[in-house]
Write a structure and sequence with these properties.
The protein is α/β, with parallel strands linked by helices. It is built from ten helices and eleven strands.
C-alpha cells in the first residue's frame, strides 16, 4: 500500500504536471495568461474531453459544453496527436476553450489523468469526444452537489443509434458492486476526490472508469443520483466494440474492491454471466422490439430503462 492508502498501481494527482509541457502543442485562453493569475479567477467547474482524430464528432461535444448556461466553466481538451483536422478545429476555437494540448499518451487512462491534472475547477466532469451534454446539465449538477454535499454526482444517460434515440437509463451508484451501473458521461467529481483516491489506473484499458468509481465507493465517497437526463452517448464506441474484454476488466476491478469477488472462481463466473447477459442484450437490441428491450433492462441489466424518449425535465 502507498502512504495514502491507495494501491501501488494507482497514479496520484501529483504524478502529473499541472501545466502543459513546454514541448506540447497547445492553445486556448490559458496559454495567453500572464503569471500571477489570482485563485479567485479559477473556475468552479472543469470539463475534460480527450480526443484523437475526432473532427467529425468533436464540434457537437464542444458546443454542448460551451453553450451551457452555467457561468464559470473551464474546458480542457487533451488531444492524443490527431492528424484529421482536429487541431485546426481546436485552433479555430482558441478563445472559447480554456486549454488544449496535443501530445502522445499511454492510453485513455493516461489522457484522462492529464486532463484532470491540468484542470483547476472544484468539480470535474469527463465527456468523451462523441458524447454531449443536455442543456442546463452542469448547472443542475453543481446545484445538487451543493445541496447534498456529495463527492460524486451522476444522472440519466440517453443512448443513441445514429440520429435515433434508443433508450434512456438511470444511474444507480448503490449497484456499483454488481457492475457498471453509472453512466460515465454523467459523472462529476469533486477535485479533492482525485487527491484522496488517486487517478485512473493505466493497466485498465476499457473499464478504468468503473474501477475508479468502485474504488471511490469502497473508500467511502458519497454519491448523489440526479433524476434528470445529464448527457447523451452515441453507440458503437470502443466499449461497445470490445465489450467482452471490458467485462474481464470489470471482473478484475470487482476482485480488487468487492468483498467475496476475489479468486478465480468468482472472476470466471462473473465474466461468463456478464458475457451471456451482454449477448442477450445485443440480440434484443437487434430485434428492435421495445418490449424485449424493456424486459432485458427490468430483469437482467444493472441499470434501469426509464423511457425510449429523451427526458426533457430540467
Amino acid at each position: 500500500m502507498a502512504a495514502n492508502g491507495t494501491l501501488p498501481e494507482v497514479p496520484l494527482l501529483d504524478d502529473y504536471a499541472a501545466l502543459p509541457l513546454p514541448e506540447s502543442r497547445k492553445g486556448g485562453r490559458r496559454t495567453l495568461e500572464v503569471s500571477g493569475t489570482s485563485a479567485s479567477a479559477f473556475p468552479s467547474m472543469s470539463i475534460v474531453t480527450i480526443v484523437r482524430n475526432g473532427v467529425r464528432t468533436l464540434p457537437r461535444t464542444l458546443d454542448s459544453v460551451l453553450s451551457q448556461d452555467f457561468p464559470n466553466i473551464e474546458y480542457i481538451i487533451v488531444d492524443g496527436g490527431s492528424t484529421d483536422g482536429t487541431l485546426d478545429l481546436l485552433q479555430a476555437n482558441q478563445n472559447r476553450i480554456g486549454l488544449w494540448i496535443s501530445e502522445a499518451d499511454r492510453g485513455i487512462s493516461d489522457a484522462f489523468n492529464k486532463g484532470i491534472a491540468l484542470s483547476r475547477g472544484e468539480f470535474i466532469g469527463i465527456l468523451n469526444s462523441d458524447d454531449w451534454y443536455e442543456p442546463g446539465a452542469i448547472g443542475a449538477v453543481v446545484a445538487e452537489m451543493g445541496r447534498t454535499g456529495a463527492d460524486i454526482a451522476c444522472g440519466r444517460l440517453q443512448y443513441w443509434d445514429g440520429s435515433r434515440r434508443t433508450y434512456l437509463v438511470t444511474s444507480d451508484p448503490a449497484l456499483l458492486p454488481s457492475g457498471m451501473s453509472v453512466g460515465h458521461p454523467t459523472v462529476f467529481v469533486r477535485r479533492d476526490c482525485y487527491h484522496k483516491y488517486g487517478l485512473f489506473r493505466l493497466d485498465f484499458r476499457l473499464a478504468m472508469d468503473y474501477e475508479w468509481l468502485l474504488r471511490a465507493k469502497a473508500a467511502g465517497a458519497q454519491f448523489a443520483a440526479i433524476d434528470r437526463c445529464i448527457a447523451n452517448m452515441q453507440g458503437g464506441g470502443v466499449g461497445d466494440r470490445r465489450w467482452r474484454e471490458s467485462q474481464r476488466e470489470v471482473a478484475r476491478a470487482r476482485s480488487l474492491h468487492v468483498k467475496g469477488a476475489a479468486g478465480a472462481l468468482a472472476y470466471h463466473s462473473f465474466v461468463i454471466r456478464r458475457i451471456f447477459i451482454g449477448s442477450v442484450r445485443r440480440l434484443v437490441d437487434a430485434t428492435g422490439l421495445s418490449v424485449l428491450r424493456r424486459a432485458y433492462h427490468r430483469w437482467l441489466s444493472p441499470i434501469t430503462i426509464t423511457s425510449n424518449q429523451r427526458d426533457d425535465r430540467h
